[in-house]
Fold this protein.
Amino acid sequence: MTKISIIGAGSWGTALAVLLNNNGHEVTVWSILQDEVEMLQKEREHKSKLPGVKLDPAIGVSGDLKACLEGPDVVVLAVPSPFTRGTAASMRPFVREGQIIVCVAKGIEEGTLYTQTDIVQEEIPQAVVCVLSGPSHAEEVGRTIPTTCVISAKERKTAEYLQGLFMSPVFRVYTTPDMLGVELGGSLKNVIALAAGTADGLGYGDNTKAALITRGIAEICRLGTAMGAHAETFYGLSGIGDLIVTCASVHSRNRKAGYLIGQGYTMEQAMDEVKMVVEGVYSAKAAASLAEKYHVEMPIVEEVNRVLFEGKTAAEAVRDLMLRDRKVETPLLPWD
C-alpha cells in the first residue's frame, strides 16, 4: 500500500482518488475550499462536478495542506492549470527532498510559456516532477470505464514505479521519456477542441470535425518537434488520442465552450455556462506565442485566438481557414 495525496478535489482529482483507492492505496484528497471538504466528507460524492461517483469511506478528505504533504509517498497535483503556480508555491514549504509530484492538469502558462511540470519544478525545486496524460475524461474514469493513459518522468525507474501505482484492469498506463511532448499534446489539443466544438455549434458535420482533428494534430506536431519533442508522441495517447476524445466527447468542457461560441455566445458567456475551467481558453494565447517564437505555422490556433479575443465571428474564421493558400499535405515526400 502506497500513501498518496491528491491536491485538488475537482472532477479529475476525485476520479483519480477512486481509481487509486480501488488499486489498494491509502488516498487523501485535499481542497482549498472548506465547503467542498465538508461536502465530500458528508456526502461522499462531488454532486456538482462528478455526480454519481461515490467516494469509498477509506478515502480521506482534508483542507490541511501541510498534513496532506508531509506523509505521502506520491502527490498528485490535480488543480486546474490556471491555479498550478499558486498552489505549487503554497506546497513548497511542506514538500520533502525527492518527493514525487505527478501533474495531471493540462495547460501552458501564458506569460512564461511554461508547461505544468516546468511551473512545478520552478516553484518546488526539491521535488521529482512527472506527468500523467491521455484521453481520460473524469466522468468515465470515476465509473471505472476502461481508459488508457501515458506517464512520463525524467528517469525510467520513476515512470515505471508510477505506472505500477496507477495501472489496473480498467486503467492501462504506458510510459515514455518525452515529457515535453506529452504536455504539449495534452495542452494544445484543448485549443483545437475549441475549434471543433465551434464547428459543431455552427451546424457543420463529421467532415469538418475530421479535418480539424487531422490538421490540428499536424499543427501540434509541427510546434512540438520545433521545440524538441518527438513526433511519435503526438501520434500516441497524449496526442491524437487525447485530441480525438476532447474534440468529440459530450464530457469535453473545451468542446462544449466551443459549441456555445459557435451558437453565438461570447468567450466569457461560454465559460460561465460551462461552469468549469476551460483550459483551452487559457492555453490559446500561449500556443500562438509559442508558434511565433518557434516560427511555426498554426492557422487553426491563430483563428481560435481571433474568435476568442479579437471579436472575429466563427463563420468568418472557418471561411478564412478554407480559403488559405493552397498547400501540399506531405511536404517531405518527393514526387516521382
About this structure: The beta strands are 3-7, 26-30, 60-62, 74-77, 100-103, 128-133, 147-152, 171-176. The two ends are 60 Å apart (CA to CA). The first strand starts at residue 3 and ends at 7.
